[in-house]
Specification:
This is 9571_t:CDS:1. It comes from Funneliformis caledonium. The structure is a single chain. The chain is mainly α. The chain has one domain (about 1-80). The protein contains 3 helices and no strands. The radius of gyration is 20 Å and the shape is elongated.
Length: about 80
């Protein structure tokens, strides 16, 4: 058991970040090299920077999905009124 714990600490932050990037699903599969959401455009090579990027990316995607859903509902309502 001690060997496993010792090995767990051998990953450096860039390796951890690469693992996190590889686990992304469809919507977030394109993880850029730099975080365009954060001032200074830092490289996404630390888990904390990856987490901040993921938070912003998730907000962007969810906002876009909500806007598309609202547009669809509005168009449906308008078409029912006039047709």
């Amino acid at each position: 058991m001690n060997t496993n714990n010792a090995n767990a600490n051998t990953f450096v932050d860039t390796q951890k970040c690469d693992i996190l990037k590889s686990k992304m699903m469809d919507k977030f599969s394109l993880v850029l090299a730099n975080d365009s959401y954060t001032g200074g455009n830092p490289a996404i090579n630390l888990p904390i920077i990856f987490t901040v990027w993921l938070h912003h990316k998730c907000q962007e995607v969810m906002t876009r999905n909500t806007e598309l859903a609202l547009q669809s509902l509005i168009q449906e309502r308008i078409s029912k009124l006039f047709f």
